[in-house]
């Protein structure tokens, strides 16, 4: 597939009006901020145990707040775990003035404009992740203008989405704590539990899965996530060893860019294969679908450049007939998963809650799509307090 090329070369024929004239509204202000959310305890997945990364202690956020002539506003964000946040912020604030005077409803055109502004540093990775903050803000704004939650603006297939918990199953916790967290999550009404695996000690991985499976019972939905730490041989061996546990999926068994290896595993195992969270463009995800590498596609809207490219992926994934389990960012993905016709799971993380004034509701193992317009989020005073730098282009008409 050559989607990447076909979606970003703009056809400017017919663009006679000055930007914004058609709808009578214009972007008048763009505030871009860099904030760091501290985590209570350092978090480790398999990449720490194999020495590739340090424990995660904070998450960097690039917030975008966009206001218009008619007094509407939108809030969007991108994020980085470990390095990259300040670079993303630097790129975002450099391209932000390109939005001034534009019609905020023409989101796809504005996405393309911002990509071309920074095309010299690429159409994936940090450059497009920086743009995601603006794209999400524009979708939020469009939902607020329509008086509809983002999910309804797109059109839903369900009002609630099956939700699983990840934050209780990290490798930085001893097995007893993981079992206790799983039991607490089940009691609190979560729909599934994901455990981290991928340690150099394969037997320790299997022991954790066995202990949690015994604690939650055979029928409860369990997934595992190896965070790319197996090679193809280990992936097959571990995949076979995990088959008796009846897992919903095995996530990132192999390197994120080994689409062919994932395809071989998906063909060899009964347990579904999930991957995609590390990919940062539609084209990379399209390759997973083309090679039949996944049973569950795991795109991350802020990582692929925002909601605009994510919607392109939803169409491709639907056509390929795969299930959907977006990575992280439940505040955005609950809306996008509700709009997906096939099976969809959303990942429940409590980590980001201090950033918002609102809370997402869990009911009967599922996350309820918020009824508030747009994303249904506003930044908390705490998020403002964690903000270390802000740049404003134009004039921001509201706070
Ligand atoms: Mg993962």
From TrEMBL:
Lineage here is: Bacteria, Bacillati, Actinomycetota, Actinomycetes, Kineosporiales
Q: Which UniProt keywords apply?
A: Magnesium, Metal-binding
Mandelate racemase/muconate lactonizing enzyme C-terminal domain residues: 175-272
Name the cofactor(s). Mg(2+)
Q: What species does this protein belong to?
A: Kineosporia succinea
One Pfam entry name: MR_MLE_C
Per the database entry, which stretches of residues form a coiled coil?
none
* Record protein name field: L-alanine-DL-glutamate epimerase-like enolase superfamily enzyme
The region annotated as signal peptide is none
The UniProt record lists the keyword Transcription = no
């Amino acid at each position: 597939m050559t989607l990447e090329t076909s979606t970003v070369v703009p056809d400017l024929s017919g663009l006679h009006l000055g930007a914004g004239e058609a709808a009578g509204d214009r972007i008048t202000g763009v505030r871009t901020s860099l904030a760091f959310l501290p985590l209570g305890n350092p978090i480790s997945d398999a990449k720490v145990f194999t020495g590739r990364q340090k424990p995660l202690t904070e998450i960097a956020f690039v917030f975008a707040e966009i206001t218009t002539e008619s007094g509407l506003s939108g809030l969007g964000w991108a994020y980085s775990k470990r390095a990259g946040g300040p670079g993303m912020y630097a790129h975002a604030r450099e391209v932000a003035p390109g939005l001034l005077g534009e019609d905020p409803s023409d989101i796809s055109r504005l996405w393309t404009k911002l990509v071309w502004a920074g095309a010299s540093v690429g159409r994936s990775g940090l450059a497009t992740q920086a743009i995601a903050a603006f794209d999400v803000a524009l979708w939020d704004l469009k939902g607020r203008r329509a008086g509809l939650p983002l999910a309804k603006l797109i059109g839903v297939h369900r009002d609630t989405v099956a939700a699983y918990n990840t934050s209780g199953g990290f490798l930085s916790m001893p097995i007893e704590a993981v079992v206790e967290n799983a039991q607490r999550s089940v009691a609190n009404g979560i729909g599934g539990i994901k455990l981290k695996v991928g340690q150099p000690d394969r037997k320790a991985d299997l022991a954790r899965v066995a202990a949690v499976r015994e604690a939650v019972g055979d029928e409860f939905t369990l997934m595992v996530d190896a965070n790319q730490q197996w090679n193809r041989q280990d992936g097959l061996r571990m995949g076979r060893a995990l088959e008796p546990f009846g897992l919903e999926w095995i996530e990132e068994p192999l390197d994120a860019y080994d689409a062919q290896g994932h395809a071989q595993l998906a063909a060899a195992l009964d347990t579904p294969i999930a991957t995609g969270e590390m990919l940062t463009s539609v084209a990379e995800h399209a390759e997973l679908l083309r090679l039949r590498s996944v049973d569950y596609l795991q795109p991350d809207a802020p990582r692929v450049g925002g909601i605009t490219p994510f919607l392109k992926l939803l169409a491709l994934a639907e056509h390929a007939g795969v299930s959907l389990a977006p990575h992280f960012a439940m505040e955005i993905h609950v809306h996008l998963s509700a709009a997906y016709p096939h099976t969809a799971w959303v990942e429940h993380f409590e980590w980001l809650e201090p950033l918002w004034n609102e809370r997402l509701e869990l009911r009967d193992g599922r996350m309820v799509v918020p009824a508030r317009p747009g994303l249904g989020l506003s930044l908390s005073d705490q998020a403002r307090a964690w903000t270390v730098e802000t740049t404003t282009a134009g004039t921001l008409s509201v706070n």
